[in-house]
Amino acid sequence: MSDILLFEEILRLREDVKKRIDKIMSQISVFQAKVQVQFDSLTGSLSSFSTDIAILAKQISDLQAQIAASSSTLAPADQALLDTTVTNATALATAASTMVANIPDLPPPTPPGV
After folding, report:
1. Which of 27, 43, 63, 104 has the least CB density, counted as fewest CB within 10 Å?
2. What is the pLDDT of residue 89?
3. DSSP readout, 31-97?
4. Helices 76-101 and 3-69, axial angle in degrees (round to 10)
5. CA dist., res. 91 & res. 17, Å (int)
6. What is the C-alpha to C-alpha distance for residues 28 and 56, in angstroms, rounded to an integer?
7. What pLDDT was estimated at residue 37?
8. Distance between first and last Cα of the chain
9. What is the pLDDT tens value at each position of the chain, 114 positions in all?
10. 7: Cβ contacts below 8 Å, ≥ 6 apart
């Protein structure tokens, strides 16, 4: 094979490899963008979840204080249920906050070609 033909074949192969790399990188960029949308959605959902649980815990505590301040008394079984609800809501709020706190912030995606 002549040097010119060999050189042309190398150039052709080089161009083929470059096209394949570009195609792979494009697919990686598309995949990363799709996954980033899901990460963003999940992070927002977890933050909202944590906030909603904290609000619920506050409402339960406020209700408990309102009941305690009234002239009526609760039956021991009702008070136990209320106390259990407060304990469970507080534990859930703590767990949700811990979960949100342990999810690291993701770096912004790097634009293709950088």
Report:
1. 104
2. 81
3. HHHHHHHHHHHHHHHHHHHHHHHHHHHHHHHHHHHHHHHSS----HHHHHHHHHHHHHHHHHHHHHH
4. 160
5. 56
6. 41
7. 87
8. 39
9. 588 888 899 999 999 999 999 888 888 888 888 888 888 887 777 777 777 877 887 888 888 788 878 877 778 888 888 888 888 888 887 887 787 777 777 777 677 666
10. none
Identity of the residue numbered 14: R
Long-range contacts of 34-37 (CB under 8 A, 24+ apart): 36/106, 36/109
pTM for this structure?
A: 0.44
Q: How many Å apart are CA 102 and CA 83, to the nearest integer?
A: 29
